[in-house]
Design goal:
Blueprint lengths: L6 H32 L7 H30 L6 H15 L26 H20 L3 H21 L8 H7 L9 H19 L7 H24 L3 H33 L7 H18 L9 H25 L8
Length: 343
């Protein structure tokens, strides 16, 4: 595929971004640990500069990912020989009769192209942690508490380490996608074999890669995950020390995260009907997401009884449980078979 898309240029540029991110993460870990243990800031603006530097590097990497996806769109069309186009369209028209969601007919003048969102495969972790870095910067500006700022920096360092050592999107760009499409661009493929290959690739392009819901459903969920992480940090602090400003910050991020999570789940419903049909309710990821939503809702409702005895600690425990439910929901895609399972 190197002859068709700039894989090497993308990977080498990404290595620079990831190397700089790792260096910033080390600085964040050191400054964060010092602030957490001493309860005093390290330098007047050091933690703010580290968070800003990480945010800029994440944004630079995100722009690089966007550029790479644009090149895929321009350079990898699914082109068919003209002799197959009419036959294919007759087959598609027959398949579309009576179908709730049909496949668009093939246009020889504008062959279908991949419009892949920038949060698939390992890129989703990059987007998730980008969202955290931006939300953490806002939380850092809002609260001038060294220990809490230290936890924000440690959270950034942990996430960047996970990204660098286990989920680097630049080391092997989109391996599942390229495994799917590489045979299409091989030489010496007969017409009928190419037609059969097209009918394997085309539905997945329409209902997954190019689905309009792919641009809405996943990013809203990853934004909510970042907000839940910040609520988790505030909940840990609430168990140790009663600081109203920290509780208020956690509640504000919880409201934001709950809104994004609810909206993302609702937008996933019509997509599921379109891609999988009606028999999708018992998918493990969906069931665990509903569980997480229920725990999240309970956390927010405890705010109605904030003045009750012991409610402060109960609310904190629910904030921690909500984070655990989020981790379980995410890992369900790896360990339980279903429509969301990562193959």
């Amino acid at each position: 595929m190197e002859q068709l898309v700039p894989l090497s240029a993308f990977a080498s540029s990404g290595r620079i971004v990831m190397g700089l991110l790792l260096a910033v993460a080390v600085a964040a870990a050191v400054i964060g640990l010092v602030q957490l243990l001493r309860g005093k800031p390290v330098g007047r603006h050091s933690s703010q500069l580290v968070l800003a530097g990480a945010g800029l590097l994440y944004l630079a990497g995100f722009v690089l990912i966007c550029w790479f996806h644009y090149r895929i769109n321009r350079l990898l069309p699914l082109e068919l020989p003209p002799v197959l186009a009419d036959y294919l369209n007759r087959q598609l028209a027959a398949m579309n009769q009576g179908a709730a969601y049909g496949l668009p007919l093939y246009d020889s003048g504008a062959p279908p192209r991949y419009s892949i969102p920038v949060w698939i495969e390992n890129e989703k972790y990059f987007f998730w942690f980008l969202c955290y870095s931006l939300l953490a910067m806002a939380a850092h500006r809002r609260l001038e508490l060294p220990r809490f700022r230290g936890v924000l920096l440690i959270g950034l360092a942990v996430q960047t380490a996970i990204l660098f050592f286990a989920a680097d999107p630049f080391a092997e760009p989109l391996p599942r996608f390229f495994k799917e499409i590489t045979p299409w661009f091989a030489d010496g493929i007969g017409n009928m074999e190419r037609l059969g290959m097209f009918m394997q690739l085309y539905p997945r392009m329409i209902f997954y890669y190019n689905a309009e819901y792919m641009w809405l459903h996943p990013p809203l969920l990853f934004l909510s995950y970042a907000a839940i992480t910040l609520t988790f940090f505030t909940s840990l602090f609430m168990l140790v020390r009663r600081e109203l400003v920290i509780e208020q910050l956690g509640y504000d991020y919880a409201k934001l995260g709950f809104f994004l999570l609810t909206l993302g789940m609702l937008l996933g419903y019509p997509w599921a009907l379109k891609a999988w049909g009606p028999n999708w309710w018992w998918d493990p990821k969906i069931c665990s997401s509903i569980m997480m939503w229920a725990v999240y809702s309970t956390y927010l409702h405890t705010r109605l009884y904030a003045n009750k005895k012991g409610m402060w600690y109960f609310s904190s425990a629910l904030g921690i449980l909500c984070f655990a439910a989020m981790i379980f929901t995410f890992l369900a895609s790896f360990f339980f078979p279903g429509e969301h399972t990562f193959q």
